[in-house]
Amino acid sequence: MKILIVEDEPKTIAYLQRGLTEQGYAVDTAANGEDGLHLALTGEYDAIVMDVMMPGLDGVLVLQSLRISKDTPVIFLTARDKVDDRLRGLGAGADDYLVKPFSFLELVARIQAITRRGRTRETTLIQVADLHIDLVSRRAIRGARRLNLTAREFSLLAALARRRSQIVSKTAIAELVWDINFDTNTNVVEVAIKRLRSKLEEPGEIRLLHTVRGMGYVLELREEGGL
């Protein structure tokens, strides 16, 4: 997941960037509202952590401009804890509000909460070639054929479909599908991929699930056959 930090205090930026990177997030930073707005509008972020009180373009003005075209989840950070201040921030479109000084673990928990809510707004229907996936009803249909998938196989297919045309590593699959980190030297991922592929691709059908040696797996339609 990718996070944008917009904060004018260098020590706070360094602290948050180091902590979130250690938690496995990719992090971009901006030291003022103008740069933060530019990054927020031109980049793709799972969440934005933004200070309210910044010189020039403050957090509320940044958020108001951002909300014209994007609904990226935003957590406001502020040293002001009056009700009116919180209402102003939430009224501008903030998803959450954290008062300084704050617990880093609480910030991580709130990032996880708002990104989960953000994922509920994503499309529930995904199509890759003649493969149709309904994330709500948890059904997958290839052409006129419904795939008889186990719960784990569907979760694996959904994880790849959400990242279609992107290479997904074994480590990422382990976390996304099993929700745990474990030694990917074991063959649990390979076995699951093999079982999914046997149901996804019958003889004569175009291959959609590809192995990228040394990197991971990708779900996509290719003009030429792949592994």
UniProtKB/TrEMBL annotation:
CDD domains: REC_OmpR_CusR-like (cd19935), trans_reg_C (cd00383). Keywords: DNA-binding, Phosphoprotein, Transcription, Transcription regulation, Two-component regulatory system. The modification 4-aspartylphosphate is found at D51. Residues 123-221 bind DNA. GO terms for cellular component: cytosol; protein-DNA complex. GO terms for biological process: regulation of DNA-templated transcription. Residues 2-115 form the Response regulatory domain. Residues 123-221 form the OmpR/PhoB-type domain. GO terms for molecular function: phosphorelay response regulator activity; transcription cis-regulatory region binding. PANTHER family: REGULATOR OF RPOS, TWO-COMPONENT RESPONSE REGULATOR. This is DNA-binding heavy metal response regulator. It comes from Hyphomonas hirschiana VP5.
